[in-house]
Design goal:
heterodimer; A: mainly alpha; two-stranded antiparallel sheet; 21 helices; 2 strands; B: 65 residues; mainly alpha; 4 helices
């Protein structure tokens, strides 16, 4: 089967109609819950006033991205059960969110922190370590934004449109309404996006198996397919994959809310109780993600053959759905790229403005701050766009992998600082550095694969590199903090 | 360090660790049987832990409020 499909006018019309709808919503959002958008906490955190329902849509829309919708089924299609680690990952993340993030929200609210690096600055003072935390966040986020573009590119290609122009148009529109409306734009669009994705996935998991002879048959077909394929694939794991699967799930879960976009979404909640309640209700999206992952097996059962595994979802929908629904599904996935891309660029812009810009500028007024953040959000998005247009997609995928390893290294500074006063800047800074160096070195030594085979007492345990690096980071942070003077007490807000 | 209110319920927070044990110890569920509604055990077990985790968090939420 060729990868190039003819343009279907019905699918294309539906796609464009929904895209126009969210564009209008994006610009209209500036007026929603009206605030003074010349202030950074209004532009960049939506005024910290999103209640449980809005936060649920916002975090859901932000955390479960278009790239997820494309990449998770692609991995499941290629290797089977191993690709499912996204499911335990997005389950065990919530007890963590419930226990930790409300504490962070409280401190951030009391001290008007907008970023994770603000929090580190508030706890430890200084400017270089907060700057390192900010750089980590920005660098980890950039390739993530680029991958949202990849997700969008895949669905646009699935509609039969080649070339980069549609992508550029979509991104320019996104950049403009993010500039004018700030976090309110993705918050409002998230409603549209999440509802559309729920409709698509429920329809898909309802209709596709009935066309393919039921779930038992779908799993059988996948089982046969992997038995023929051989290697470390299959509908259950090989015992040698256990530690890799578990450590990827745990490491990803610990990293997930260290990213600037998830942090931004959490801090924009109206209260700590909002964050708590959302930890209860957000797993609904995880069910959705699990079902999305199963699309990989459905593609196998439907006999879909693609050159690049990332095309399986559009190819599956194109084969089994009427054209209007193909357009609707494509729009849902493309809009799923817009929401996180907007929030990621806002999160990165907040970090730059709050934690890097003060190193080089004086006399920062709140107005200048918001103005700079808006401009940086544009720069960040165009950077990601240039990246995708001019460099191979694989670079973005590799960098996003490294980004996950790097962002995990701010975990001790953010999370442990909420619970202990034993850590100090030299310890955390050296721990962070050790983690980044070890993690990057291991990832490069493995040819940019996320897993490293650790030899312990004669046995081999493949483990997620980010987690190994975090372990070193934690040890260094505590040991160095013990042997250096304790930090001066910072008055705690109550 | 902790307020008395927090200490009173501190055991309840440990309940939050259950999903980690249930999902990170693969020998618990890396099997095709028993299957349920066409889903091999590996899949429905993990899906089942989605509502169970919500429930666990809800219990802690009620308990520590």
């Amino acid at each position: 089967m060729s990868d190039i499909v003819p343009v279907n006018p019905v699918a294309m019309t539906v796609f464009i109609a929904f895209f126009l709808l969210v564009t209008v919503v994006g610009f209209f959002a500036a007026r929603w819950k009206r605030g003074d958008l010349t202030q950074l906490h209004e532009w960049g955190l939506g005024g910290r006033q999103f209640g449980t329902v809005i936060s649920w849509f916002l975090v859901g829309g932000d955390f479960y991205t278009a790239y997820t919708v494309i990449a998770v089924p692609a991995l499941v299609y290629s290797v089977g059960a191993y690709g499912f680690f996204a499911l335990p990952y997005t389950i065990i993340v919530y007890p963590f969110v419930f226990a930790v993030m409300p504490k962070l929200w409280k401190v951030a609210h009391a001290k008007n922190h907008i970023t994770a690096a603000d929090y580190v600055h508030g706890e430890y003072g200084g400017k270089w370590f907060p700057a390192a935390v900010a750089v980590t966040g920005i660098v980890a986020t950039m390739p993530y934004i680029a991958l949202q573009l990849v997700g969008m590119q895949v669905v646009i290609k699935g509609l039969g449109v080649s070339g980069e122009l549609p992508l550029i148009v979509a991104f320019v529109i996104l950049a403009l309404y993010t500039y004018t409306s700030g976090l309110r734009a993705p918050a409002m669009i998230a409603f549209v996006k999440d509802i559309m994705i729920y409709i698509v996935v429920i329809a898909a998991v309802w209709l596709i198996p009935s066309k393919l002879g039921g779930y038992a048959h779908v799993f059988d077909a996948a089982d046969q397919f992997f038995k023929a394929k051989g290697g470390p694939t299959g509908i259950i794991l090989k015992p040698t994959q256990f530690t890799a699967y578990a450590s990827l799930a745990l490491g990803s879960a610990l990293a997930a809310f260290m990213y600037p976009h998830t942090m931004t979404a959490v801090l924009s909640s109206s209260s700590a109780a909002t964050v708590r309640k959302n930890a209860i209700f957000l797993p609904a999206y995880t069910l959705l993600l699990g079902l999305i992952a199963l699309l990989g097996y459905m593609a196998i059962a439907a006999g879909i053959k693609v050159h690049s595994a990332s095309d399986v979802v559009p190819a599956l929908f194109g084969q089994l759905f009427p054209s209007w629904f193909v357009g609707f599904a494509a729009a849902a996935i493309a809009i799923s790229a817009l929401v996180p891309a907007a929030i990621m660029s806002i999160g990165a812009a907040n970090l730059f403005t709050r934690n890097l810009w003060p190193l080089m500028a004086r006399d920062i007024t709140p107005e200048k701050e918001a103005k700079t953040a808006k401009l940086v959000s544009l720069v960040v998005k165009f950077g990601a766009l240039l990246f995708i247009v001019f460099l191979p997609t694989q670079y973005a995928i590799d960098l996003q992998l490294l980004g996950g390893v790097w962002i995990l290294q701010i975990f001790p500074a953010i999370v442990f600082s909420l619970y202990t006063r034993r850590l100090n800047t030299p310890g955390l800074f050296l721990g962070w550095l050790a983690g980044i160096v070890l993690g990057t070195g291991m990832a490069i030594a493995q040819g940019l694969k996320p897993v490293f085979a650790l030899h312990l007492g004669g046995a081999t345990y493949p483990l997620y590199i980010g987690l190994i690096a975090l372990a070193l980071n934690i040890v260094v942070s505590f040991v160095v903090s013990m042997v250096t003077p304790r930090r001066a007490p910072v008055p705690q807000a109550t | 360090m902790k307020t008395s209110e927090e200490t009173k319920h501190s055991w309840l927070w440990l309940v939050l660790l259950i999903p980690y044990v249930a999902l990170l110890w693969l020998p618990f569920y890396n099997d095709t049987r028993p299957s349920f509604a066409g889903f091999p055990f590996f899949y429905w077990y993990q899906f089942l832990w989605v509502p169970l985790t919500s429930l666990i968090i809800y219990i802690v939420y009620r308990g520590v409020k």
